[in-house]
Write a structure and sequence with these properties.
Blueprint (H helix, E strand, L loop, with lengths): L1 E6 L2 E6 L6 H8 L18 E4 L2 E4 L12 E3 L13 H8 L9 H14 L5 H7 L11 H14 L1
Parallel strand pairs: 1-5
Antiparallel strand pairs: 1-2, 3-4, 3-5
Length: about 150
Amino acid sequence: MEVSIKINGVDQSHDVEPRMLLVQYIREAAGLTGTNIGCDTSSCGACTVHLNGESVKSCTVLAAQVSGMEIDTIEGLADDDGTLHPVQQAFHECHALQCGYCTPGMVMASVSMIEENPSMTEDEVREGLEGNLCRCTGYHNIVKAVLQATEVTL
């Protein structure tokens, strides 16, 4: 079936299997590999993207379900000139990653959280990121990065 989605401001249209997951569409059809496939069960959050401005785990949605909608991925956050989004910059400055596998999903979830509540406490950040798992960092620097980004985006 033909699926048309605007990804990072660019119209994409591909003939895909009706059962193709959005995460597969993003990676395989659109060729944007920054969105990771982690668990395929919506447990880890590595595949988090923004669907019409809302944070979603793209392994829980069929590409056909979002035809005609807009998706933003980690590749679309930075400015065209390479300037990082404030959350990406904070993750870099706070060393909020180790292996980096969870980072795209963490960043996308964090951007959404900050848009909803730009003055979060540490506890609110930790609660907000409960759906995104990291096996390396212990979350300390991730939380630190999100809190730093809230100061920049206020």
